[in-house]
# Entry
Amino acid sequence: MEHDHLIGQVQHRARLASRGEAEVAVRATLQTLEERISEGTYQNLIAQLPQGIGDYQNGSEIDRRRPGERFGLDEFIERVARRESVRKQDAAIHARVRA
# Structure
């Protein structure tokens, strides 16, 4: 699957108005996953995604010497919502979309 195809699928399945919104949703979800899971697991995940998608890594300094930060689903959705600047209900839908 190519980058454009994946973004198009996310846009369609999440019923987003633009490809730009789909890019933001994917980026927000991946950056939050990067905080939540271990470095090795995250690297395995992005290695399976189209080229360019893995470039969405979080710009913040994450201590990779320890496992991912522990937080639940509600916190995950809250973080995605903040990154996307959308309501939690919308972020929950966007974060669950599969391409």
About this structure: The radius of gyration is 13 Å. Residues 11 and 74 are 23 Å apart (CA to CA).
